[in-house]
UniProtKB/TrEMBL annotation:
<feature type="compositionally biased region" description="Polar residues">
    <location>
        <begin position="1"/>
        <end position="12"/>
    </location>
</feature>
<feature type="domain" description="RecX second three-helical">
    <location>
        <begin position="75"/>
        <end position="114"/>
    </location>
</feature>
<comment type="similarity">
    <text>Belongs to the RecX family.</text>
</comment>
<dbReference type="InterPro" id="IPR053924">
    <property type="entry name" value="RecX_HTH_2nd"/>
</dbReference>
<dbReference type="InterPro" id="IPR003783">
    <property type="entry name" value="Regulatory_RecX"/>
</dbReference>
<keyword id="KW-0963">Cytoplasm</keyword>
<dbReference type="InterPro" id="IPR036388">
    <property type="entry name" value="WH-like_DNA-bd_sf"/>
</dbReference>
<feature type="region of interest" description="Disordered">
    <location>
        <begin position="1"/>
        <end position="20"/>
    </location>
</feature>
<dbReference type="GO" id="GO:0006282">
    <property type="term" value="P:regulation of DNA repair"/>
</dbReference>
<comment type="function">
    <text>Modulates RecA activity.</text>
</comment>
<dbReference type="Pfam" id="PF02631">
    <property type="entry name" value="RecX_HTH2"/>
</dbReference>
<protein>
    <recommendedName>
        <fullName>Regulatory protein RecX</fullName>
    </recommendedName>
</protein>
<dbReference type="GO" id="GO:0005737">
    <property type="term" value="C:cytoplasm"/>
</dbReference>
Amino acid sequence: MQSESQPDSGQGSRHHDDVDKTLVTALRRRAMDYLARREHSRLELELKLNKAFPGTSVELRSSVLDQLELDNLLSDTRFCEAFLNSRVERGYGPRMIRFELNQRGVREQVVEEVFVGADIDWRDVIFRLASRRGLDLVGDNKSALSIRDWQRHQRYFMSRGFSPEIINCVRELLDIHR
């Protein structure tokens, strides 16, 4: 009678390696599909892969993400640059953009480097936003607002992530009356 613990002939571990390679390939392919659509932060991509492949280990997903970073297909810096440009075009201020980047797992050091490198004039950004909101800031037709109307605009600018100092640049160009 043979014992139940027979030596492994290598078939079990070879099968396990094949399954891991197939899973790694599937994870990498899915990650590259996401990256082909737009830049992602490492955290965003990890969360999407976890959702798409819920049974995979953190180590396996991390190794796939590490390799994507080594291959320069995944970059938090590139994501941060694209995200910053997108948000600036949509009229968001630095506070909101920093908050959103933090929520997406981008390190503060990376955010700071990208912000410094971008050299954005936040006054121009808020002036364009004010113009889109119907405020005329130049010429003889400066918008005249009641204090109440100005406070409404001010709250809006704050909710978009602009500092009080930048918001006051807009206020100085308006005719605000009681």
